[in-house]
Design a protein that fits this description.
Radius of gyration: 17 Å
Strand content: under 5%
Distance between the termini: 21 Å
Shape: elongated
Length: 86
């Protein structure tokens, strides 16, 4: 991961912004894909009968979505010089 950030930091500002914008778009597409997979999985007859299992699947999907978004936002903030260690 550090090698990737080092190679991105060696680019000029316009390319770095484009790289992180691409990361944000890719993150959003992954989130859409995760939600579609979770939606299809929850439509299964077995899952429909088990409310607790559906709740756990929804919670897991939400946790993955928030993790992806916070990771992407953290990388973008780090690029603009915001310290994330506080």
């Amino acid at each position: 991961m550090d090698d990737l950030l080092t190679s991105i930091n060696s680019l000029n500002l316009a390319w770095r912004i484009a790289a992180f914008a691409g990361l944000a778009v890719a993150t959003h597409l992954i989130v859409i894909l995760l939600r579609q997979i979770a939606g299809r999985a929850s439509m299964n007859e077995r899952v429909k009968r088990h409310q607790k299992l559906r709740s756990v699947a929804t919670l897991t999907t939400s946790a993955l979505v928030f993790t992806l978004y916070f990771f992407a936002i953290g990388l973008i903030l780090r690029e603009f010089g915001v310290s994330l260690t506080a």
